[in-house]
Amino acid sequence: MESYDIRDAEKLVAELRIRANALGFDSFGIAAADARPDLPEKLNAAIAAGWHGDMEWMAETAQRRASPRGMWPEAKSVILLGINYGPETDPLAILGEKSLGSISVYARNRDYHEIIKGKLKELAGLLARRSGAEVKVFVDTAPLMEKPLAEAAGLGWQGKHTVLVSRDFGCWLFLGAILTSAELPGNTQHEESCGSCTRCLDICPTNAFPAPFQLDSRRCLAYLTVEHKAQIPLEFRAPMGNRIYGCDDCLAVCPWNKFASVSREAKLRARADLERPVLADLVQLDDERFRTLFAGSPVKRIGLGRFLRNVLIAIGNSGDATLLPLVEQRLDDDSDIVRGAAVWALRRLAPERASALSLAYLARESDSSVASEWTVELS
User: What is the dihedral of CA 7, 13, 14, 15, to 10 degrees?
Assistant: First the structure.
């Protein structure tokens, strides 16, 4: 195997860039491992404010997350790569179709972790062979802050909604990273280019942005529908609308998306059955059918209980009384969060029917949080 002297770093980087493109990566950049000394202060401030919600792992890994070298002291460079997953249609259009469920664009096909990781390993292997350096591969599965590092590597900038924005691909980039002990020439950090635009902040249905460039996850529907394990807080249920997994609002309105073409790889295209799923079908899923429908999809990771919780809230927001029989079937579900969401949906769709059923169900309800759903004042 041909060997490269690490001093010929520019030639090595050029080879890596060509190989990355051949593997299907749309963006490529390099930053020094210590390129963002501002991250510890920003991360600690966000955790102190509680914006991480119940993602306790963020606080537990803060020291390592704050810097690539905090996680791996030998790291000298970070290679950041992006794959475009731009949608073929406007993802916000489905929000007006209340009989359907809205699944975030990134989750409408194979889990992006699986798609990217193999490609990263192949590219990292090439780097290791050519340079003799050590390498480590990451796809949102370790305490590495990919977005600010991608900004440092010139892939784009973190917008006012905190998501990475690219001049070429808008807000639609899956990110992966390779840490290496090799010292590689870095790219120029991308300047923030949002200007006076506040579309992403203005459209947020739950006011999850305390200020531009700051996100309070506790108010974010992407967090609440995916990461949050308990019942959705009452104040956010009506604003959820028919969003049953994630929320694309702040990404989809970014004007830079006009430059984002549809992904060139078929494996990143949305599955037709996940673009316009029918709530009446989804609420009837059992565990086996749920696992079959979402095999290979990120949706599968939240489990049937949390998924049905989201679907029932969407049904409660649908205004469709013909779905009442399906809602009532879930009043006896084994899952507390499913029963609680079913009560809320029933009370939203048919208050009188809910009142008639309440005494019987309260008499046999053992969970206090579910029992409170029968009596709490609805907003």
Answer: 100
Q: What is the pLDDT of residue 111?
A: 83
* Annotated catalytic residue within 140, 168, 281, 320: 140
In terms of DSSP bridges, do strands 27-32 and 77-84 run parallel, antiparallel, or are they unpaired? antiparallel
Tell me phi and psi for residue 180, to 5 degrees. -145, 150
Report the 10 Å Cβ neighbour count for 337.
22
Whether the full predicted model's pTM is greater than 0.85, yes or no, is yes
Reply yes or no on whether 140 is catalytic. Answer: yes
Burial of residue 262, with CB atoms counted within 10 A of its CB: 0-12 exposed, 13-18 middle, 19 or more buried: middle
- Cβ atoms of residues 180 and 75 within 8 Å: yes
The Cα–Cα gap between 150 and 186 comes to: 11
How far is 191 from 173, CA to CA, in rounded Å? 18
Contact 342, 350 (CB under 8 A): no
User: Residue 6 is encoded by which pair of tokens?
Assistant: 């690490």
Backbone angles phi, psi at 206, to 5 degrees: -125, 10
* Cβ-contact 68, 33 below 8 angstroms: yes
Please give the span between the terminal C-alpha atoms of the chain, in angstroms, as a whole number. Answer: 68
Residue identified by tokens 């073409």 is: 261
The DSSP secondary structure of 85-115, one letter per residue, reads: ---SS-TTGGGG-TTB-EE-GGGSSS-HHHH
Which residue's entry shows tokens 């991250």? 39
User: Which residues of the chain fall short of a pLDDT of 50?
Assistant: 1-4, 62, 65
Q: Say what the pLDDT of residue 98 is.
A: 97
Domain boundaries, the chain: 1-266, 278-379
DSSP state of 211: B
Lookup result for tokens 């359907």: 100
